[in-house]
Design brief:
Layout lengths: L1 E7 L12 H21 L1 E6 L5 H13 L8 E6 L10 H13 L2 E4 L8 H11 L3 E5 L9 H12 L4 E4 L6 E3 L1
Parallel strand pairs: 1-2, 1-5, 2-3, 3-4, 5-6
Antiparallel strand pairs: 6-7
Helix pairs in contact: 1-2, 2-3, 4-5
């Protein structure tokens, strides 16, 4: 089964709140790209990292798509960096995270306990188990981030095709 990873920023990176129409536009771009990959590339599994922001939005989109007969075989997979991940989430985010874990097809805990490189190992795990990716990422800014590191690993090291969705304009570009 072919899989795709999704990486992107946490909510504090965006110039808008989740209730803003610009966030809806970004989620619509994510949904369209997942649907395109499902139809054109036969992607049947989506990996996310479980964090707030893009990971959560993508997971909820996949779970929503699964309710449609056309996407009944689309699986959500969650790569968890360490067992305690999510314990410090705000109550609403913790509830969303728990729902995602309950409804996903598979979850993997990448490290046995917290360690400084746990997030990197989680991100690389998703890339290593995928044939393509989607990154909500601004290629023009050289901001150090897990999203940038994951994007670079996928494109430069693994040579995977990655669709980049600009975090501010929601424009899609294939890299």
């Amino acid at each position: 089964m072919q899989a795709c990873f999704i990486t992107g920023h946490r909510p504090n990176r965006f110039k808008f709140k989740e209730t803003d129409p610009q966030c809806k536009k970004l989620k619509d771009a994510l949904r369209s790209e997942i649907q395109r990959l499902y139809q054109e590339q036969e992607i049947r599994a989506i990996w996310v990292g479980g964090a707030a922001g893009v990971d959560t939005w993508a997971a909820e989109i996949v779970l929503d798509l699964r309710k449609q007969e056309q996407y009944h075989d689309l699986e959500l997979r969650v790569a968890i960096p360490f067992p305690e991940f999510g314990d410090s989430f705000a109550p609403q985010q913790k509830e969303r995270y728990q729902r995602i874990l309950r409804e996903c097809a598979d979850s993997v805990v990448v490290c046995k306990s917290y360690r400084p490189d746990a997030y990197k190992k989680r991100d690389y795990y998703m890339v290593d188990h995928s044939v393509c990716g989607i990154a909500v990422y601004d290629l023009d800014k050289s901001v150090r981030s897990g999203t940038g590191m994951t994007y670079n690993y996928a494109v430069l090291k693994k040579r995977l095709p990655v669709t980049v969705i600009h975090p501010d304009s929601s424009q899609c570009n294939m890299v």
